[in-house]
Write a structure and sequence with these properties.
Strand order of the largest sheet of chain A: 6-9-10-3-11-12
Number of domains of chain B: 4
Shape of chain A: elongated
Number of helices of chain B: 20
CATH architecture of the largest domain in chain B: 3-Layer(aba) Sandwich
CATH superfamily of the largest domain in chain B: P-loop containing nucleotide triphosphate hydrolases
CATH topology of the largest domain in chain B: Rossmann fold
Largest sheet of chain A: 6 strands, mixed
Shape of chain B: elongated
Radius of gyration of chain A: 35 Å
Strand content of chain A: 5-15%
Helix content of chain B: 55-70%
Radius of gyration of chain B: 36 Å
Oligomer: heterodimer
CATH class of the largest domain in chain B: Alpha Beta
Largest sheet of chain B: 6 strands, mixed
CATH superfamily of the largest domain in chain A: ABC transporter type 1, transmembrane domain
CATH class of the largest domain in chain A: Mainly Alpha
Helix content of chain A: 55-70%
């Protein structure tokens, strides 16, 4: 429940729409009850008198209530949806504010694709919170209170029965089903996850499965999971039908009781017969408003779970760090016994790395795939925390500096760089909002993208650009940032090698006194680097200049030899 | 929507149950109204005792029970029907994936296919669990109610017959307008809803560039715009229900007036009939409106069904197999004769003829896109031949038993797939039989992975999941080798990695292939000079054709493009 309080606060952030929705909801409910009440009264009255005027007056009431109910319902829907979307906006902002300090580390640690689609889905599903969880009981309470007060004037028993009916159908039964739902803890979501994982495996591993004759077995397993997911869905669906029917049944029973008591008191002469039809119609009408409560348990549980999941994403406290500013200018960066292990993994990704990156030096990090190159770079960038050891800037621990101030000095190009929907210009301006078109065009020129216009549209995730174009654009963006330390993670892996070498050369020539740390997958053109460090299995096994490493005929030499064996 | 409907009506039991229950529910609704009215009529007009009307109250109780029970059963049947059909659809999808030979090569669309099995199928749910039951009820119950009303007063029936058709007509008109409006704004809506995801995805970038703070306003603004556009679209949807509500209110009003007039002025209608009509008429309109909202749910299901239909209607050509079993352990002679294969008009393999002697080493080389991998898939029996023959020991592949063929081969790709499970399971998958720990140990030893396994706290039981995260490229490669050692194939298809492997794996890979080749034919997509040189026969592919074939010496002497692609000798300048 606590998790939903936060959502509730955001919902009530802008009270006007919520209040209007509740008021119109109440009016709509009361008008529909009044409509049926007057039709019941009309018939009874008509049966007794021959006066046409009565008929006309009541007939006019009928129209009025009908129109009133329809218009109020319309306004209610409008305001409640407006309020819901406002709430969603607030929710997004508040979630963003909490996620923002955690994001780089969180994304580095986990596969961010899954995480993000989960977040988006959960935020979306909270749109039902106001519409189907929070406000139907309140509106119903108001409608019932109004109706009960009205009936009190005619028959206290009817009023009592209505109150009991309200308690049962709006509180007891939904609460019972919500409790049942929670206790049974439907595994629908889990079984969906299992099915999805298995289906992905079936498709991605198809070739191996086929060759190893495992396809039939895997298909059976997949069919089994599909079946159990189906069963969960079926049970959940049945539960909903059950809850709906139970609520409807109780409402009808209450109407029956009102009729019976009304008939009893009419027969006994304690209630005027002319009101009997009206009271019965009221009971039928007021319970018609109860329909949304049937879906309450499902939506309540769904909202609660979504809130819990969202909470768990941002529950982690941001890493505690000092707030010192990293000094401007050239800095020597050092790693001292640095180690990092990803959550849920058994081996450290990097271990016991000690190396200096002197101010203004150019370093290449090389090694086989999976040797920990990118992880080391992420630790140096302060995206991931050093689990062991520490990173030092001019002999002061990185822990003393705020992330913002470290990142301000860095020019970073990652393996996968994000581009936003917009134009090339808007994407480049992320690096420097004040950059002029001339500067931006020059940056594009430096990475051989001069043919692109700044007004060119960039689609979501830059998917209208090729991998190589995206990498070059990321370098152009970094060029505009003017930091003192360049950290590049395989920045030209998708660019043809000639252009790649050209871009490297320009980078180094244009920034001769800046510090460069470059993760590289290929070993060409490393002759110019001041130092090369070689990682294997997360450990630093060799370092030195190109010539030193080649002379010593160690690991680097071996890798180089293999590279030279590869056919063009 | 026809196909979905057909699927629903194939569930004959459910449909009959729905029909019976709808009739029952309709009858109960009428019964409920009748007893209600009888009670009121009894005490109010006829002045009866409470005791005299008690039987009516019991009748009413019965009607209520039947109405609720029938409603419950209708709902349940809908859920059951949806579950049965969804199961059927999922199995059909899985089966159609299994039958798709191209799946082994085209991995790119796997994500979409997963979503087909999950999301698309789920989206059809509403059609079966809500729309169809509502459809059947809407065919049956309003007619029953109308009949009951006409039996009391035929003129009321006439008014309904005149006014009711306006509801579906208006529904169609307004629905169409809403849809147009929604389509018109769709683009805008999608853009807004994408912004949040876009910003979350780019959060690392934004923070690295010190732009995190500014995005708050952007989210706020896009959320507001999103809200306003959505509300705009919703407005017209709500307006449609307002109109519907108003039409039904208007009809009820007209009917009330008519009934009242007859009751008061002409005095030719009894209180019983008048009250009964006034109870039944709202029910009648409610049924029609419910159908309108169910119709809405059905819309989403239809587009999902179309997606599935596309998958089902894909043309698939299967690999043809026969009955003849291959002799176990004997290395077969393979011969490709004038093979042709096409994915699409843009890419095809043409006129491939290669003779592959038992125990020989074949190297396939060529630029990326020249058809190397496709050729490997054809040889492996993963893709169907369009024209030409693959002869296995002189017999066309169409005569060979599928199982006995796959028992003979191993395929080691550049990025072997590791299944979610333990290391042991991932090695054991290589052999299609029970294997002892000793056999697995030996295979791991030969593939140079036993040291690594021993270093892990859980050893063989270490979980490697989701495509084998936590293992490096080289380690995955070695697990694939272990699979091959366990299987002892007679034909090995090997896609040599370009670079990125550690030296140990490089060494092991060379040794292992050497070792495996003593008992098998090895066909390699080769990138290393060393591998190419050591082959007995080199096939040089260009644009899907064999441009040249022969030994290293022959090609180096006679084939210019081959010579040009050879790496420069050691110590030379960088390329």
């Amino acid at each position: 429940m606590n998790e939903l309080v936060q959502v509730l606060k955001l919902t009530l952030h802008e009270k006007r729409d919520v209040a209007l929705a509740i008021i119109f909801g109440m009016l709509a409910g009361l008008a529909s009850v009044a409509l049926l009440a007057s039709s019941g009264y009309l018939i009874s009255k008509a049966a007794l008198t021959g006066q046409l005027t009565v008929l006309i007056v009541i007939g006019a009431c009928l129209k009025l209530f009908g129109l009133g109910s329809a218009v109020s319902r319309y306004s209610e829907r409008l305001f409640s949806h407006r309020a819901t979307f406002t709430m969603l906006g607030n929710l997004r902002v508040s979630f963003f504010e909490r996620l923002s300090p955690l994001a780089p580390e969180l994304y580095g640690k986990y596969r961010s694709g899954d995480l993000l689609s989960r977040i988006i889905g959960d935020v979306e599903s909270l749109q039902n919170f106001l519409l189907r969880v929070f406000y139907p009981p309140i509106v119903l309470l108001l409608v019932f209170t109004g109706t009960i007060l009205f009936t009190l004037y005619f028959s206290i028993y009817t009023a009592i029965l209505l109150a009991v009916g309200y308690l049962l159908t709006a509180v007891v039964v939904p609460a019972y089903f919500a409790w049942r739902k929670r206790r049974r803890n439907w595994r629908t979501r889990e079984s969906r996850g299992a099915l999805s994982a298995e289906a992905a495996e079936f498709l991605y591993g198809f070739r191996d499965l086929k060759i190893y004759r495992q396809l039939a077995g895997k298909e059976q397993k997949l069919a089994g999971l599909a079946e159990s997911y189906n069963e969960e869905q079926r049970n959940e669906g049945k539960e909903e039908v059950y809850s709906q029917s139970a609520n409807g049944f109780i409402a009808l029973l209450i109407s029956l009781a009102i009729l019976a008591s009304g008939a009893y008191f009419t027969a006994a002469g304690e209630l005027e017969g002319i009101y009997l039809a009206m009271l019965v119609m009221i009971s039928l009408g007021v319970f018609e408003n109860m329909a949304p409560m049937a879906a309450f348990p499902a939506h309540f549980e769904e909202s609660r779970k979504a809130a819990v999941r969202l909470e768990s994403v941002v529950a982690e406290k941001p890493r505690e760090k000092g707030s010192d500013e990293l000094p401007e200018g050239l800095l020597t960066i050092s790693a001292k016994n640095v180690g990092y292990m990803f959550p849920n993994e058994q081996r450290p990704a990097v271990e016991d790395i000690t190396i200096d990156f002197p101010a203004g030096s150019k370093t290449a990090i090389v090694g086989p795939s999976g040797s920990g190159k990118s992880t080391l770079l992420a630790v140096l960038m302060d995206i991931l925390p050093a689990r062991d050891g520490q990173v030092l800037f001019n002999d002061v621990s990185a822990e003393e500096f705020s992330q913002e101030s470290i990142w301000r000095s860095l020019n970073v190009v990652l393996q996968e760089n994000h581009f936003f929907q917009g134009t090339l210009r808007s994407n480049l301006q992320i690096a420097d909002p004040s950059a002029t078109d001339k500067q931006m065009a020059a940056a594009l020129e430096r990475v051989e993208l001069g043919r692109f216009s700044l007004a060119m549209e960039v689609e979501e995730k830059g998917q209208n650009l090729s991998g190589g174009e995206r990498q070059r654009l990321a370098i152009a963006r970094a060029l505009l940032k003017k930091g003192d330390i360049w950290m590049l993670d395989e920045p030209v892996s998708s660019v043809d090698s000639e252009t790649g070498q050209l871009i490297y050369e320009r980078l180094f020539d244009d920034h001769p006194d800046k510090t460069f740390i470059v993760v590289s997958h290929d070993l060409t053109g490393l002759e110019k680097m001041d130092q090369i460090i070689v990682l294997e299995n997360g450990r630093l096994i060799e370092s030195g200049s190109y010539d030193e490493l080649m002379r010593s005929e160690g690991y680097f030499y071996g890798l180089k030899e293999i590279e030279q064996q590869v056919m063009a | 929507m026809k196909d979905l409907k057909q699927l629903a009506f194939e569930q004959k039991n459910s449909i009959s149950l729905l029909i019976v229950m709808s009739v029952l529910r309709g009858a109960a609704m009428i019964g409920q109204a009748v007893f209600f009215v009888l009670v009121v009529d009894g005490v109010f007009i006829k002045g009866r005792d409470f005791g005299e009307i008690t039987p009516f109250l019991f009748g009413l109780l019965l009607a209520i029970i039947v109405r609720s029970a029938a409603g419950y059963l209708i709902g349940r049947t809908g859920v059951d029907m949806a579950a049965a059909i969804k199961k059927q659809l999922r199995l059909k999808l899985i089966n159609s994936f299994k039958e798709d030979p191209l799946l082994s090569s085209a991995e790119s669309h796997s994500g979409q296919k997963v979503s087909l099995v999950l999301d698309a199928v789920d989206e059809t749910d509403g059609f079966f669990s809500k729309y169809i039951p509502q459809l059947i009820q809407s065919y049956i119950i309003p007619i029953m109610l109308l009949a009951a009303i006409i039996s009391q007063n035929w003129t009321t029936g006439l008014i309904i017959l005149v006014t009711a058709p306006f509801i579906p007509v208006f529904m169609a008109i307004v629905g169409k307008r809403t849809k147009e409006k929604a389509d018109e704004k769709m683009d805008q809506l999608n853009r807004f809803s994408g912004t949040f995801l876009d910003i979350l995805q780019g959060l690392t970038t934004l923070r690295l560039f010190g732009q995190g703070e500014k995005q708050k306003d952007k989210i706020e603004e896009s959320s507001k715009n999103f809200r306003d556009s959505t509300v705009d679209v919703l407005k017209s949807a709500f307006l449609s229900s307002l109109t519907l509500e108003y039409i039904s209110m208007l009809s009820i009003g007209i009917i009330a007036l008519e009934v009242g007039l007859r009751l008061v002025v002409f005095d030719n209608l009894s209180f019983f009939s008048a009250f009964l009509i006034m109870v039944l008429v709202p029910d009648f309109f409610t049924m029609l409106k419910d159908f309108g909202s169910a119709f809405h749910t059905a819309r989403g299901s239809v587009s999902a069904a179309q997606l599935m239909d596309e998958e089902f209607s894909k043309e698939r050509k299967q690999v043809v197999w026969g009955e003849t079993e291959l002799a176990e352990g004997k290395v077969p002679h393979l011969s490709l004769e004038n093979l042709n294969f096409a994915y699409s008009p843009q890419f095809e393999l043409r006129d491939i003829s290669i003779d592959i002697e038992p125990y020989s080493k074949i190297a396939v080389i060529g630029k990326s896109g020249s058809g190397k991998t496709t050729l490997m898939h054809l040889i492996a029996g993963l893709l169907p031949i369009k024209e030409g023959d693959i002869l296995i020991d002189g017999k066309p592949r169409e005569e060979i038993d599928e199982s006995s063929w796959f028992k003979q081969i191993s395929y080691i790709s550049q990025s072997p797939y590791l299944f979610a499970g333990t290391i042991k399971e991932n090695i054991a998958i290589g052999a299609d039989r029970e294997t002892s720990q000793k056999e697995i140990d030996e295979a791991a030893e030969k593939a140079g992975i036993s040291d690594l396994i021993a270093s892990l706290p859980q050893g063989y039981e270490t979980g490697v999941g989701e495509g084998g995260r936590g293992l490096s490229g080289g380690e995955k490669q070695r697990i694939a080798l272990a699979r091959a050692f366990l299987k002892k194939p007679t034909i090995i298809l090997f896609d040599e990695p370009t670079t990125g492997l550690d030296l140990q794996t490089e060494r092991i890979l060379q040794q292992s292939i050497e070792e495996l080749s003593r008992y098998a034919t090895v066909i390699t997509v080769a990138h290393r000079l060393h591998t190419i040189r050591n082959s007995d026969h080199i096939v040089f592919l260009e644009n899907g054709k064999v441009a040249a074939a022969g030994t290293h010496e022959e090609l180096a002497a006679n084939f210019e493009p081959y010579r040009n692609r050879l790496p420069l000798p050691q110590g030379g300048a960088t390329r």
